[in-house]
């Protein structure tokens, strides 16, 4: 006889059986998971170009490290690396005992790329001469050559390079010593070269001259009936300001026999201009003058018959025709 009570009893038995089964199943899974957790570990197998190169536990950390190196290189000379193929990662469960070798993987990956080295090429007249690693070193070389007044200071520059070829670096001291060229000193003398050596050829001076005064040319450069004339005579009124034909250093300012009161300006180690028969001198030996500065006043001192400027242009002591360059 089926009663409500017996149906209820049967249902409880049925449920109990199922609950037992479910509990056993859960326990079983838990034991298996625990076993798996103790014995196995999840890892990534890393392949590069189809070749297995190792295991990593932390894929994103390794990827970031590789990516950073690719973009920014190291703290030394490597600026960045061009990597054609990046590694592939495959997740797997491995028995404990396998160890990750992230460092080896990293090395293999970055070595598979092409490194670009960052350095500074020190150039002289646009030709690469030396190489240094840092901006500070490159700047230091330029500044040092300026401080030493090296003759080539304006010809030495540097340029930042990114190249796949690593260069031999030199240090600042060695580079400066190798590049330094002494600037010839302009000698300030008490004497003045008045030799009558002349040359008619139109030698390039390397500088441009302006007219020291305006006036009338009364005697030209060359051989005259009464001897040789090593300059150009320009007549004008007494006291007219005489301008420096080009910038330079005054290497003579004083009285010199038949030249009268005169000024010599040395424009570089070879070119000089002479301003003679002056009435007044406004500069002294050793002064630096700019082109156009007033240096003296027109006069008629020395061997002169009237106010005029006797202008000479000398290259390595040899008098040149001033009209090759001015007037
Ligand atoms: Zn003269």
How does this model look, in words?
The protein is 25% helix and 35% strand. It has 327 residues and is of the alpha+beta class. The chain has three domains: 40-112, no CATH class; 117-179, no CATH class; 198-324, Glucose Permease (Domain IIA) (Distorted Sandwich), CATH 2.70.70. β5 and β6 form a beta hairpin. It is rod-shaped and about 160 Å long. The termini are far apart. The mean pLDDT is 91. Bound molecules: zinc ion (ZN). Zinc ion (ZN) binds next to loops. Zinc ion (ZN) binds at residues 219, 229, 231, 233, 310.
Task: Furnish the topology, listing elements before pairings.
Elements: H1 4-39, E1 40-48, E2 51-56, H2 59-72, E3 78-82, E4 88-95, H3 102-111, E5 114-124, E6 127-132, H4 135-147, E7 156-163, H5 172-179, E8 198-199, E9 216-219, E10 222-224, E11 227-229, E12 232-235, E13 241-243, E14 248-255, E15 261-266, E16 271-278, E17 280-281, E18 288-289, E19 294-297, E20 308-315, E21 318-320
Parallel strand pairs: 8-21
Antiparallel strand pairs: 1-2, 1-4, 3-5, 5-6, 5-7, 9-12, 10-11, 12-20, 13-19, 14-15, 14-18, 15-16, 16-20, 17-19, 20-21
Helix pairs in contact: 2-3, 4-5
The protein binds zinc ion.
Residues 219, 229, 231, 233, 310 line the site of zinc ion.
């Amino acid at each position: 006889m089926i009663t409500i009570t017996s149906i209820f009893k049967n249902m409880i038995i049925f449920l109990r059986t199922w609950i037992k089964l479910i509990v056993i199943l859960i326990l079983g899974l838990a034991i298996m998971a625990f076993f798996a957790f103790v014995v196995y570990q999840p890892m990534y197998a890393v392949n590069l170009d189809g070749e297995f190169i190792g295991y990593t536990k932390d894929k994103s950390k390794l990827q970031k490290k590789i990516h950073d190196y690719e973009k920014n290189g190291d703290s030394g000379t490597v600026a960045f690396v061009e990597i054609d193929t990046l590694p592939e990662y495959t997740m797997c469960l491995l028995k404990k005992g396998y160890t990750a070798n992230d460092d080896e993987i990293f090395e293999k990956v970055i070595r598979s790329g092409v490194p670009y080295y960052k350095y500074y090429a020190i150039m002289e007249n646009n030709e690469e001469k030396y190489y240094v690693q840092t901006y500070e070193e490159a700047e230091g070389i330029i500044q040092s050559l300026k401080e030493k007044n090296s003759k080539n200071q304006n010809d030495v520059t540097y340029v930042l390079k990114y190249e796949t070829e690593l260069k031999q670096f030199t240090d600042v001291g060695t580079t400066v010593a190798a590049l330094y060229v002494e600037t010839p000193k302009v000698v300030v003398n008490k004497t003045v070269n008045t030799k009558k050596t002349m040359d008619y050829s139109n030698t390039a001076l390397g500088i441009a001259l302006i007219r020291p005064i305006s006036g009338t040319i009364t005697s030209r450069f060359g051989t005259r009936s009464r001897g040789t004339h090593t300059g150009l005579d320009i007549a004008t009124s007494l006291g007219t300001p005489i301008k420096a034909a080009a910038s330079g250093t005054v290497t003579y300012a004083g009285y010199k026999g038949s030249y009268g009161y005169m000024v010599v300006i040395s424009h570089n180690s070879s070119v000089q201009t002479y301003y003679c028969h002056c009435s007044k001198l406004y500069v002294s030996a050793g002064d630096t003058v700019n082109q156009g500065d007033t240096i003296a006043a027109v006069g008629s001192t020395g061997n002169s018959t009237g106010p005029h400027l006797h202008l000479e242009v000398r290259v390595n002591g040899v008098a040149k025709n001033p009209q090759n360059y001015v007037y």
